Amino acid sequence: MESNTQQGTHLYVLTLQNRQQSACTVSGTFTPEPGFTRFDVLGQLRIDVVRQYPSMEGAVVLYFALEANHLTGEGVAS
């Protein structure tokens, strides 16, 4: 299967939970600005989630993963 959609350089998964115990999990790809740290990416993603889901304002992070968006190893085309 091939994808013609441009993807970011990193894959993320972020789960937040608000004071009302509602949880929200988002995932996707992201290309950080030059010099960004993992902490900077987390902060930007939280801002983006709150814009889309205002009830997540002030939510706590239950899970955050950020990895390079590529596969390596035997049998994988590069």
Structure described in brief:
The protein has 78 residues and is α+β, with helices and mostly antiparallel strands.
What would the keywords be for this entry?
78 residues, alpha+beta, 3-stranded antiparallel beta sheet, elongated
Characterise this structure.
The mean pLDDT is 90. Helices cover 19% and strands 32% of the residues. The chain has one helix at 38-52, and strands spanning 10-17, 23-30, 60-68. The protein has a three-stranded antiparallel β-sheet with strand order 2-1-3, with helices on one face. It is elongated and about 40 Å long. By secondary structure, it is an alpha+beta fold.
Mean pLDDT: 90
Rg from alpha-carbon coordinates? 15 Å
Q: Could you tell me the strand content as a percent range? A: 25-35%
Assign the structural class, choosing from mainly alpha, mainly beta, alpha/beta, alpha+beta, or little secondary structure: alpha+beta
Unreliable runs: none
* Range of helix content: 10-25%
Number of strands: 3
Distance between the termini: 14 Å
Strands in their spatial order, largest beta sheet:
2-1-3
Order of helices and strands: EEHE
Shape, principal axes of CA atoms: elongated
**Annotation field: number of helices:** 1
The main sheet comes to: 3 strands, antiparallel
